[in-house]
Amino acid sequence: MKDEFLRGSKEAAAAATKSYIEGDHRSFLMNAAISVELLGKSYLAGINPLLIASKGDFDSMLHLCGLAKHSKKSPQDIRTITSKEVISHCCQINPALTEFKENMERLAEIRNGVVHIGRYAKEFAETLFVPYVKYVLDLLDILDPPLTLGEYFGNACDFVGTSIKESTDEAAREVQRKLAKAGRLLIERFSDMDDETRKAVIRTIASGYSTTLYSEERATCPVCDNWGIMRGDSEFIEWKGEVDGDGFGYEYPLVHLYGHEFECRVCGLKLDSSEEIELALMESTIEVEDPNPEDFYDPPDDYYEDFRLRGRDVT
Q1: 65: domain range?
Q2: Which residues of 32-67 are buried (b: 16+ CB within 10 A; e: fewer)?
Q3: Regarding beta strands 249-263 and 270-271, do their DSSP bridges make them parallel or antiparallel, or are they unpaired?
Q4: Of 178, 176, 277, 292, which is closest to residue 219 (Cα–Cα)?
Q5: How far apart are CA 229 and CA 216, in angstroms?
Q6: What backbone torsions phi and psi does residue 268 show, to the nearest 5 degrees?
Q7: Angle between helices 121-142 and 25-47 (to 10 degrees)
């Protein structure tokens, strides 16, 4: 099943890129939306086919989990989740994709007629092309097995690769502009202050941040070397075990935040994507400080045994 979805997605992607190159922007938007939906369904079905079953449709679930003989529907009548549900499910399983969620939902809405593009097809297409490609490439990386840009986009891979490079080059120029602007603003704000006053004001600003657990974390600003705020979406990675100084073991959840916004209130630097964050030589993926173990499910039963086998007792 996942292979069928993948084939359909590749066909839609080929039609989408061909249409974009030829300036048929409406056709690009329709086919790009189809390719995103089918690629997402291929990914989800590869994890477990039940992830794409329409909510509450038991007969479809029976088909998808290999119990078709008990279904009262034919295979042709299987109902699966909507395009926006596919995007939501993929982003929940892989929070790093959430950066592109709004744009991918816009594609789905255009295809479904929720957003009426009218004479603005060209503007929509030009706005959504690069986010579409980046979202697809991120999904291709986590398929089992992963696919390369060439394997998915075929003859259009050179055009797609060039478009991504041009977008990255433009983003790099924009980041350099933002860094320079923040540096100038830093001088303007504090150049007239004596050293003691400047440090006191900066401490007040930097200590005034309040963060929302799992969606915001403090990070060091690349311009002024003070605390700023990284915003994004978090993912539980694994349970980690440690032994304290008294020999007692304990476990804690390792949670990563995938940043796609950064703001420093000291120098005014604002970065608006994970790409910009990385181009500013910052880490876009950071560890969440002090996650609450009660927010996550218990570790698997063999966790404690594995820990003991390493000569440490976590009880």
Answers
A1: 2-144
A2: bbbbbbbbbbbbbbbeebebbbbeebebbbbbbeee
A3: antiparallel
A4: 277
A5: 6
A6: 85, 10
A7: 20
State how far the Cα of 19 lies from the Cα of 15, in Å rounded to an integer. Answer: 6
Boundary residue ending a domain (144, 161, 178): 144
- 105 shares a domain with 195: no
For residues 289 and 282, what is the distance between their CA atoms, to the nearest angstrom?
Answer: 17
pLDDT digits over 151-199, tens only?
999 999 999 999 999 999 999 999 999 999 999 999 999 989 999 999 9
pLDDT at 114: 62
In this structure, the number of other CB atoms found within 10 A of the CB of residue 83 comes to 22
**Hey, which residues does 220 pair with through a beta bridge?**
227
Residue 75, C-beta contacts closer than 8 angstroms, at least 6 positions apart: 63, 68
Q: What is the pLDDT of residue 302?
A: 53
Q: Which of 61-65, 190-194, 232-236 has the highest mean pLDDT?
A: 232-236
176 shares a domain with 126? no
Is 152 a domain residue? Answer: no
Residue type at position 125: A
Distance separating alpha carbons of residues 97 and 233, to the nearest angstrom:
9
Q: Which two tokens stand for residue 178?
A: 């933002």
Question: What pLDDT band is residue 315 in, cutting at 50, 70 and 90?
Answer: very low
